[in-house]
Amino acid sequence: RELLLNTRQMGAILILYFGPETDIDKERELDATDDNKGKNDKIVALIKDILEVNESLQAVKYTTMVATESLKYESNMLFNEIPLKINTISDDASLHDLDTDSDEFKNYCEKNNQYREIVREFCSELESKRENLQKLIDAIRLYLKIEWDRAKNNED
Predict the structure, then answer these.
(1) Mind spelling out the 3-state secondary structure of the chain?
(2) Which of 68, 69, 101, 149 has minimal CB crowding within 10 Å?
(3) pLDDT tens figures, 85-140
């Protein structure tokens, strides 16, 4: 929770710093090295995107926790007798004793598939956040380098 609040706070500070530009002649790509004018709106959009992904990751994380607990419960209910059978019968035979046509087993499989989809979504969103964060780091690094060079040369 503290990390989420810090992320929101840092995002707001960056958005304030890179706020809207006035009197820009053209928009520039974030990797343009000639000038920073025209980059602020793209940087702010990238920051907002990272913040939105961060918020959705929190929701997916919570959903994953709930799904994990539900799946544990379902698997315990479904497989609670299997260890006893493994001790008395060969391993292969015990698995054949499981009724794969039962509603309980189908419900377990459905929840397992939902859980896997939630985890896939979480990983995809996490990768997206990582990529956008790297873009933001590179954009700000270049932005500050250009501003430093301008300051060294006494340019307006």
Answers:
(1) CHHHHHHHHHHHHHHHHCCCCCCCCCCCCCCCCCCCCCCHHHHHHHHHHHHHHHHHHHHHHHHHHHHHHHHHHHHHHHHCCHHHHHHHCCHHHHHHCCCCCCHHHHHHHHHHHHHHHHHHHHHHHHHHHHHHHHHHHHHHHHHHHHHHHHHHCCCC
(2) 101
(3) 444 444 444 445 566 677 777 777 787 787 788 778 777 877 877 888 899 999 99
Residue pointed to by tokens 């189908």: 106
